Amino acid sequence: MSTPPPDDRSTPDDLTEYEREDFPRGIPDSARTLQEGGAASARSALTLRLVLAAFGLVLCTVLGVLALGSDVSVAFAVVLFVLAAVALVDLVVVARRKLRGEPG
After folding, report:
1. How far is CA 51 from CA 60, 63, 88, 92, 95, in A?
2. 87: number of Cβ within 10 Å
3. Rounded to an integer, what distance in angstroms lies between the CA atom of residue 20 and that of residue 6?
4. What would the pLDDT profile of 72-83 be if each residue is shown by its tens digit?
């Protein structure tokens, strides 16, 4: 397999004939970060993050409701509800990334 010529373009979006055939919509952003001979950049395990965010959302919500019903301080319940809100935001962000088709 032949290697492409060195990257001496004035801008990264200028495609050579070699690249124009391989990447009709342009070079993906992930390809620009690859170093020759090195490992690819790390990717997030989106499915795992989705499951963990859903678990955190359910757990913090249930524990927060139970904390409100017991004689535990209200501050503890508020902290649990804040963590549930963070898990909800993470759940939405990860779900949007998966819908866009990102691997993981």
Report:
1. 14, 18, 12, 12, 10
2. 20
3. 15
4. 999 999 999 999
